Predict the structure.
Amino acid sequence: MTEVRFVAACNAPLDVTFAYLDNYRNVTEYWHGMASYRPVGALDHGPGSIYEAVSKIGPSTLKSTIETVGWEKNVRIAYKSVAGMDSSTTFDFAAVDASHSTVEFRIEFRLPGGIAGKAIAKSLEPFVAAAARNTAANISRRVAEYCEAVRADTGRRAAGHPHQ
């Protein structure tokens, strides 16, 4: 099993960071290489929600069906593949202070066994490492942008201008 970890620093309060990453609509914005990510079934977040994911890593296109197997608001989101590439992913959230937070991201994946699987894994290593770095940077940037949008919207509503 191959494991990739990183920590993204977010210029946003913990609850805002969690809300952004908990929304499946945002996955293709921050997850480097994620071409498609959509819910299947009645749930679109939280325990038991299931998603179809298509990602491009280097020369490979990987398809997976992923289930949310752990979800605790502002603490953790955990996913496990139920079809396709064998993987598990966790996001662990922590507050730094009232307006900053971090996300520790971990993905573990297993490619097919044998010589072919080892060759594929070896060829994907540099792409996976680059994707992890890009995803961390994307999370930091996108969460900060989302936080600014939330603040602006809150300010407009407080000023009595809900649609500006």
About this structure: Helices lie at 14-22, 27-30, 114-158. Residues 94 and 102 are 5 Å apart (CA to CA). DSSP finds three helices and seven strands in the chain.
